[in-house]
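Lesson 9: reading folded outputs for more than one chain in a single document. The general rule is that every protein is listed as its sequence immediately followed by its structure tokens, and records are never interleaved. Here is the first one.
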Amino acid sequence: MPQEVSLAELDLAAIIRPGERVVWGQGAGDPISLVEKLLEQRQRLAPLEIFCAGVRSRRLVTAEHADTLSFTSFGAMGNLGGLARAGKLRVMPTHLSQVNGYFAAGTLRADVVLVHLSAPDGDGAYSYGLANDFQHAAIQQARVVIAEVNDRLPWTYCDRRIDPARIDYLVRVSRPLPQVRPQAVGPIEERIARHVADFISDGATLQIGVGAIPDAVMALIGDRRELGFHSGLINDRVAELMARGVITNSRKPIDTGITTAALLVGTDYLYQFAHKNPAIRLFTYDHTHRGEILSQLGNYITINSAVEVDLSGQINAETASGEYIGGVGGQGDYVRGAQLAGGRSIIALPATARDATISRIVPRLADGIVTTPRSDADIIVTEFGVAELRGRTIGEGARRLAAISHPHFRAALEEAAADLARRGY
């Protein structure tokens, strides 16, 4: 059984060895109290390697903590951007479907795992609560597991359970949960969402990313029937559509009747809705992102975003102006998964950035970073329309992409597209 320790008395220097790698989960799954304690005591722990996929507080992990800690992640999403801008984040380009396997094979080392768990249910079983991503795979390899058990965390059904005997140290807390509210939706997002919604029919199974565009799409499809959901995350909009009987998963060929994801990212409304709700199940990335699973979903519509798309159809979702701001994440998994299932993959983005001074449809990717290759690109959507690229030549695809660019940039992009055609593409 785990050794129970109060947070005030927790001495990580007596547990963690210098040079070890410490791992914690993604987004709302990160154990903030344990992370705060590690940062407090880092001078006594140095040097340490950290593998994480983000932390809830933008102010919690900063470049100053890289004095004794080295940080690695599979992207610079959200709050890891500051570390990336300071040159203090090592980025590992990988599909999320691969991460669990990397831990299992030892490609990614996990010496110490910090994990955020709910209080146990009546049978004494703990739940991963908000995030069942790659933590279980990391725990299987770890020398030490330290659990932050939060009595405010919802108890959710997960495909894996942690054996209490696998927990070495347990710290009890009562800490408010992160509140990630739906983003404000403006006229551009609404126009994009209307184009996207045209591809969503009754009985389709959906995957969405984060941001105002997916929120706008979800707000438009309340008149659909018997939708399914299989994604990396569940947010408030998904819970609302479940409560209204729009998302039922009744036609989903696998996980029938169950909303499937790895993470909960929302507000207390979502967390209360998910608490002991058998219609929601959190799976590891092996299930939420793996092609063999996604290929069984039939009419699968995946909706993701990008920083920019070039005229050949190459998609960059990782860098902007030379700075790492995103990651490969699940985009490649879902773009390819939709194809395998016989569905459609949609990349939706505003046509411009920085107050319409920069086009996001470009002749060629500025930083040369390709998150999704042109051979996998399917549907690109901006507020100016839809470009369907599947089965098109490069030249035809370029003409279609130029046609959905902002009018301020369209003439130059049409000329670049014509040049591709003249060169035989």
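And here is the second record, again sequence then tokens.
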Amino acid sequence: METVDPILKDARFALEDYLHFLRVERQLAKNTLVSYQRDLLDYIAHLEKEGYETIDQIDRSVILLYFQKLKDLGKSTRTISRHVSSIRSYHQFLLREKVSSQDPTVHLETPKLEQKLPRVLSVSEVDALINSPDSTKPLGKRDIALLELLYGTGMRVSELIGLNREDLHLTMGFVRIFGKGSKERIVPLGTGAIKACQRYVEEARPALVKNKDPEALFLNMRGTRLTRQGCWKILKGYALEAGIQQELTPHILRHSFATHLIENGADLRAVQEMLGHSDISTTQIYTHVSRSRLKDVYVKYHPRA
């Protein structure tokens, strides 16, 4: 927390309790907590700058003016929508804990997000990417296993680097993934991922282990757990080798995993479970991607398009 002499003392002191509630009761992920804290500290600082001394002075018009300020600063609709969620949840907490006698967010609407279709790779681009690492070297074997897992399971990069050796069950053909809020899910592995992981674990990983982080599945040259930045750097390098023009991120492989499954007739509920989405509406975006790609094929190849 900031070391300040707060004007809105009730709001700032309650923020510590609120963040504790999110961390312990709702078990939100660390990154989500950081976002909530940052959004709410900015919000409270704005209210103090405007001269408000108690949280009960805040009404709907005050909050709307704050959102207009964010818009004037060039903040995206998605960022403002996140602020709406943070502020609404916070005021509900203040009312429930009797810090405030009202909830000024009751009739507050969340701005509609522009639905951007996620970028995906073609199957041939995925093949070129996975074939890029040098399979004769330990790091190449590691990277093939890493790419096979990212594309073969659709896991997030944070989930990938958080994997421990015991989470990989190659004989049974599945991997145990801990997603947002430490929610566990089981995702099956394809033949390519099983073979690549088996080769990495048996032939390459022992050369990387230096007893600094012996439980971690994916290790760097120093023998410590591979980082998010390290994973992004690996992808960027192989994307160049594979001749992939668009900027490649781990999330694009996640999008590609889901889109290719649905294009080949996978059940939406099954894809939802493998991705770890709590709401199926989040997964439905991939049906739009699939339809969009079908339309591109139609326009390109149909003589009367």
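What the second record shows: The beta strands are 168-169, 174-178, 184-188.
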